[in-house]
Specification:
The protein has a single domain, classed as Roll (Structural Genomics Hypothetical 15.5 Kd Protein In mrcA-pckA Intergenic Region, Chain A), CATH 3.10.290. About 40% of the residues lie in helices and about 15% in strands. The chain is built from 5 helices and 5 strands. It has a 5-stranded antiparallel beta sheet. The longest helix has 20 residues. It is elongated.
């Protein structure tokens, strides 16, 4: 799975490392500014080097990964995890942000049903829209 002399594009590597489901999604993410190398925006054709530190924005998560191996073909998930290591700072930040999102979701009221006609009228009169 590891190629030492071969050049690998960043979109191909992100797909092989299973950060994105398709190569087209990986390419769109790179071109959309979701992947940075040392704080700089990059293009999808950029060659990946071992030791590069990439910042990847994926949904709510912001990952900082260091490239350990190169791969241009997608393999199993266990092999894909050996292609990179996530920094300790990134892991701590990601867990902290996930905990904050979880706590924020507990503050919102959770309805067990849709409001019926009477409850909708009460909501509208309370909000001043009626």
């Amino acid at each position: 799975m590891a190629e030492t002399d071969e050049k690998v594009r960043i979109d191909k590597w992100l797909w092989a490392a299973r950060f994105y489901k398709t190569r087209a999604l990986a390419s769109a993410a790179v071109n959309g500014g979701k992947v940075h190398l040392n704080g700089q925006r990059i293009k999808a054709a950029r060659a990946v080097k071992v030791g590069d530190c990439y910042e990847i924005h994926r949904g709510y998560d912001r990952l900082e990964v260091i490239v350990e191996q190169l791969a241009s073909r997608r393999g199993s998930a266990t092999i894909a995890q050996t292609l990179y290591t996530e920094t300790d700072k990134s892991i701590v930040r990601r867990e902290k942000e996930a905990e904050q999102r979880k706590l924020a979701s507990l503050q919102r009221p959770v309805l067990d049903h849709r409001p019926n006609k009477k409850e909708r009228r009460q909501i509208l009169s309370f909000s001043g829209k009626l």
